[in-house]
Specification:
Elements lengths: L3 H20 L6 H12 L4 E4 L6 H12 L3 E5 L6 H5 E6 L4 E6 L6 E5 L6 H13 L1 E4 L2 E4 L5 E6 L12 H4 L4 E3 L6 H11 L14 H11 L6 H16 L3 E3 L3 H17 L7 H12 L4 E2 L1 H5 L4 H11 L11
Helix pairs in contact: 1-2, 1-3, 2-10, 9-10, 9-11, 10-11, 11-13
GO molecular function: ATP binding; ATP hydrolysis activity
InterPro entries: ATPase_AAA-3, CbbQ/NirQ/NorQ/GpvN, ChlI/MoxR_AAA_lid, P-loop_NTPase
Pfam families: AAA_3, AAA_lid_2
């Protein structure tokens, strides 16, 4: 019979194979690929805020192809309607009844491109899907296939004609991060790889959806000790008391940080979460869940800097992370 440690070793190998496969397309962004995988394994979603052309679309497409998952892209525009996202019922004259045509959100992996360019009403059409894993159209609730993962993007430069995401919707995203520009050497590697054929065209499936769903179940078994839970609560509570923050992180942020910690420990081949896991993930989990006060904004303080300040102030516990 296969032992638990043997299974964890095989999982670690599968995770590395998946990440390496995506790296054939996205050069030098292993951390960002792993964060995306952590979000998928913990049932969360990602908000990417970055300039055009750095590989956001290629990364999510490469993840989808590596998993053999159904991929759909939604290009958000000012005239996009909620039904364009969730789907619509169309009357069939032959059968004389309405038939539901699924929208692009009903896929395993969805790229919501430039989500801040559409109206709040259409943005809200994603809320139920992000939080509940279902969509409601014509009074009927339809469950989304699992796994379900949304990677939304927004351009941090061009704010003209955009609709900033409200706090309620930002809170639905597990992580917010940037891909960033490649180094000179990485950019040279990109040119070499796409010179004759884009590597995305030859990318193959290396992990099945069934294996991924099994991994998601295993992530839930990763132990979170009481000292780690207390550290999470202390960090979240510090966001509510910091002098630069007008609105601190919600209890949903505590849950998100814990679940992300379980997934991160899992891809590291560990059966338990350690405080350093939480410290590493906290900036990506919390920066979009806080609101700075007017004094902090006037002094050009950033959300990232405030979270970093909190993490240096909150005591990191020591103890038995394996304890239930």
């Amino acid at each position: 019979m296969e032992s638990r440690s043997d299974y964890w070793g095989q999982t670690d190998e599968k995770i590395n194979t998946l990440v390496s496969n995506v790296e054939k397309v996205v050069v030098g962004k292993r951390r960002e690929i792993e964060l995306s995988l952590i979000a998928i394994l913990s049932g969360g979603h990602v908000l990417l805020e970055d300039v055009p052309g750095v590989g956001k679309t290629m990364m999510v497409r490469a993840i989808a192809k590596s998993l053999g998952a159904e991929f759909k892209r939604i290009q958000f525009t000012p005239d996009l309607l909620p039904s364009d996202v969730t789907g619509v019922s169309v009357y069939n004259q032959k059968s004389m009844e309405f038939q539901f045509r699924p929208g692009p959100v009903m896929a395993n992996i969805v790229l919501a491109d430039e989500i801040n360019r559409t109206s709040p009403k259409t943005q809200a059409a994603l809320l139920e899907a992000l939080e509940e894993g279902s969509v409601t159209t014509d009074g009927e609730t339809r469950e989304l296939d699992q796994p379900f993962f949304v990677m939304a993007t927004q351009n941090p430069i061009e704010y003209g004609g955009t609709y900033p995401l409200p706090e309620a919707q930002l809170d639905r995203f597990l992580f917010k991060f940037r891909i960033g520009y490649p180094t000179k050497q990485e950019e040279l590697d990109v040119l070499t790889r796409v010179e004759k054929q884009h590597p995305i065209d030859t990318l193959t499936e290396v992990l099945t959806l069934e294996e991924l769903l099994h991994m998601k179940d295993q992530v839930k078994t990763v132990v979170v000790g009481e000292n780690v839970k207390q550290y999470i609560v202390n960090v979240i509570n510090a966001t509510r008391q910091h002098h630069s923050i007008a609105l601190g992180a919600s209890p949903r942020a505590s849950i998100a940080l814990m679940k992300a910690g379980q997934a991160y420990a899992y891809i590291q081949g560990r059966e338990y979460v350690i405080p350093d896991d939480i410290k590493f993930l906290a900036p990506f989990t919390l920066q979009h869940r806080i609101m700075l006060n007017s004094d902090a904004k006037l002094s050009n303080t950033t959300n990232e800097r405030v979270i970093s300040d909190i993490l240096t102030q909150v005591h990191i516990p020591v103890g038995n992370e394996r304890a239930q």
